[in-house]
Backbone:
């Protein structure tokens, strides 16, 4: 157990020393332990109205501050808005009366984030993706009361998570799919050669869409043990794989428009909500067809060799409805996310040639030939590749942070936060604070290597709750191990085959519902 430094908290003018205990990787919540007699924090907490933040005006509220071209935060993306709020108001900020949205508290220090996780309860509540939950409740013929991990709450969420956890989080489950992902990635590298310009050796501007095809092909191999054909040459714009990719992109875009921006979808059936339903109906229709085909194949095979089967087949032995919903979740959540992370990862490797050469030394020692497959044993031996991915997620996380909806009145940062408030741990901002990471804007994978002599270790200097790209606790990302395996396999295979270069401006991305790369990915690939 790691013991944190003493924290000095100022409560109503008095200073109370406290000691925090935590396990950095544990999902068990530990209470704050005071050196002196335990104090009822709520008794001394300052009122909610005292939390710093933009003050809502009568009738107008705060919504006008976020209007494009008019409001002080309106012209910025979500990440920039968060950084502006932090700069203006400090480590804890409250924004209320923002359209139909609940009051929200933003946390910008790792100590406050840790406290949020410690008071989240046994069954953490995250009242996000409400549009998705609205859709799923309206499609009972598909979901039948089980709405998946993203939108379920309470016991319903806990029961679902308990069923799928053993098949999604255990290392041995991931090992069974490494060979599949290696085959998909080798095929993708061949396609990269075919796509690059024969004169400039650069990839086309829409290469990110190709990365999303790779991500979709990979997640379907894992979830359904089938190949969709995403990597076929000259894939038509109206092909099922491309339609699925477009639908996932539209899904996140519409969720941003309805849940982050000002929207009246809760009041009436808006145009965006209608489009959202059409998009998800299309996506679920295609996905369900492949799920049914996988079910039929499973039934024909009988009950032998279960260890080597897909996630869907394993879950079908437990609960058919759970298997169906989990497969739909994987196919919708594993495309835009992994595609965008892989784009920023390759950009950073290309833009930092000295790091790339250091990575290549490790790769060459593990993959003697360009066609050498990635295996579980190889993934167990990589150190620098893992560090490269961690540092990429620090600089370009997939989301601004993690949200929890308070289930009871709590005290965070010396302030009372009532039940029903949304609290967001803004790890994307914290991970770029110089108080946590030196040379914070630089790509330095070495900071994640224990015992390195080149750079101070992040594990020794940064607070354990400063960097949380996959969340924490019971609601940590259930696809984390698969995503890391896919990214590492892609990185190893690409670096073994190419020297990659970048000859354009800085990478640009939009921080919306998820962080999305918008720069054309014109990577230059030089054969080794």
Residues:
């Amino acid at each position: 157990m790691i013991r944190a430094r003493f924290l000095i908290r100022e409560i109503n003018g008095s200073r109370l020393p406290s000691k925090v205990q935590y396990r950095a990787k544990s999902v068990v919540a530990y209470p704050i332990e005071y050196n002196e007699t335990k104090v009822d924090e709520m008794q001394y907490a300052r009122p909610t109205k005292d939390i710093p933040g933009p003050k809502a005006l009568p009738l107008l509220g705060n919504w006008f501050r976020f209007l494009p071209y008019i409001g002080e935060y309106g012209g910025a993306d979500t990440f920039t808005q968060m950084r502006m709020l932090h700069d203006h108001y400090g480590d804890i900020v409250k924004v209320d009366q923002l359209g139909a949205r609940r009051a929200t508290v933003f946390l910008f220090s790792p100590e406050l984030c840790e406290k949020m996780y410690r008071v989240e309860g046994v069954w953490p509540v995250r009242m996000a993706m409400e549009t998705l939950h609205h859709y799923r409740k309206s499609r009972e013929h598909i979901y039948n009361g089980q709405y998946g991990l993203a939108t379920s709450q309470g016991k319903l969420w806990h029961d679902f998570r308990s069923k799928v956890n053993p098949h999604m989080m255990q290392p041995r489950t991931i090992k069974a799919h490494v060979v599949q992902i290696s085959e998909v990635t080798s095929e993708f590298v061949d396609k990269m050669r075919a796509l690059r310009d024969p004169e400039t050796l650069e990839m086309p501007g829409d290469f990110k869409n190709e990365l999303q095809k790779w991500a979709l092909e990979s997640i379907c191999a894992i979830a359904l043990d089938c190949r969709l054909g995403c990597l076929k040459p000259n894939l038509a714009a109206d092909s099922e794989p491309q339609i699925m990719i477009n639908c996932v992109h539209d899904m996140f875009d519409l969720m941003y428009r309805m849940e982050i921006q000002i929207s009246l979808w809760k009041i009436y059936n808006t145009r965006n909500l209608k489009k959202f339903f059409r998009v998800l109906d299309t996506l679920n229709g295609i996905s369900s067809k492949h799920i049914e085909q996988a079910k039929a194949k499973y039934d024909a095979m009988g009950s032998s060799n279960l260890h080597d089967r897909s996630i869907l087949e394993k879950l079908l032995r437990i609960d058919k409805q759970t298997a169906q919903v989990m497969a739909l979740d994987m196919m919708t959540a594993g495309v835009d996310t992994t595609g965008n992370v892989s784009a920023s990862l390759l950009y950073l490797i290309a833009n930092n040639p000295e790091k790339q050469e250091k990575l290549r030394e490790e790769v060459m020692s593990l993959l003697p030939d360009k066609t050498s497959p990635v295996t579980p044993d190889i993934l167990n031996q990589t150190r620098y590749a893992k560090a490269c991915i961690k540092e990429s997620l620090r600089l370009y996380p997939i989301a601004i942070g993690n949200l929890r909806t308070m289930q009871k009145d709590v005290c965070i940062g010396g302030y009372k936060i009532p039940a029903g408030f949304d609290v967001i741990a803004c790890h994307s901002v914290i991970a770029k604070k110089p108080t946590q990471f030196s040379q914070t804007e630089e790509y330095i994978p070495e900071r994640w290597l224990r015992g390195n002599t080149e750079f101070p270790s992040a594990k020794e200097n940064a607070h354990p709750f400063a960097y949380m790209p996959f969340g924490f606790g019971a609601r940590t990302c259930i696809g984390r191990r698969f995503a890391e395996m896919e990214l590492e396999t892609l990185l190893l295979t690409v670096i073994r085959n190419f020297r990659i270069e970048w000859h354009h401006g800085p990478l640009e991305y939009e921080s919306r519902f998820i962080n999305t790369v918008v720069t054309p990915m014109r990577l230059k690939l030089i054969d080794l």
User: Anything to note?
Assistant: Confidence is low (pLDDT under 50) at residues 1-38. The first helix runs from residue 41 to 44. Residues 245 and 325 are 19 Å apart (CA to CA). The first strand starts at residue 2 and ends at 3.
